[in-house]
Design brief:
This protein is mostly helical. It contains eight helices and no strands. The protein is elongated.
């Protein structure tokens, strides 16, 4: 099943990178993977199920990334730097996940999607709380500022950075599509 899931993620990511998040449909996924409807219908009933699967894979990959950073024994400041370098590299290599996150956020009425987003955000907050509190205990971070405030500023800053990156990727993709139409 893991191999199949990876194939879905790669094909879905390619669709998103080529044509945007709105192009991610079961029909396009079938074409991209070269499989028929009956094979894919065992996994997905609706187009949003593909997005849900992408979020579940993102959740899993985020937990793996955090685990890899945690297993390296480092000072909290180094751990924080390592985390964000790894996150930046991750989203640079898999930019389609940014589209998935921002598209999922707009689906406020889908409780499954919102639950997964909340799980990802909560895991990030808990991990950042731990790093910041360790840094405060070792007098590496400012003790006067509440940990929650620091965590919120970090998450907001990273979100803005990733939003800008996602918009840049979309702009480049749209320009390439427009150039293809004009040629």
């Amino acid at each position: 099943m893991e191999l199949i899931k990876n194939d879905f993620v790669k094909a879905s990511g390619a669709i998103i990178n080529e044509a945007g998040i709105n192009a991610l449909t079961i029909d396009k996924l079938e074409l991209k993977m070269g499989i028929n409807t009956t094979e894919l219908s065992t996994f997905f009933k609706q187009d949003k199920d593909v997005l849900l699967m992408m979020l579940l894979c993102l959740d899993n990959e985020m937990h793996q990334l955090i685990h890899e950073v945690v297993t390296k024994t480092q000072l909290p400041e180094e751990e924080l730097n390592s985390l964000f370098k790894n996150l930046y590299t991750f989203f640079d290599q898999k930019p389609y996940y940014l589209s998935v996150i921002f598209a999922a956020e707009s689906m406020e009425n889908d409780s499954n999607i919102q639950d997964i987003l909340l799980r990802i955000k909560t895991a990030a907050e808990i991990y950042l709380f731990e790093i910041i509190n360790q840094g405060k205990q070792k007098k590496l971070f400012n003790n006067a500022t509440r940990t929650k405030s620091i965590v919120n500023k970090i998450l907001l800053s990273f979100r803005v950075l990733m939003n800008e990156q996602q918009l840049s990727i979309k702009l480049v993709r749209d320009l390439e599509i427009q150039r293809g139409i004009n040629e």
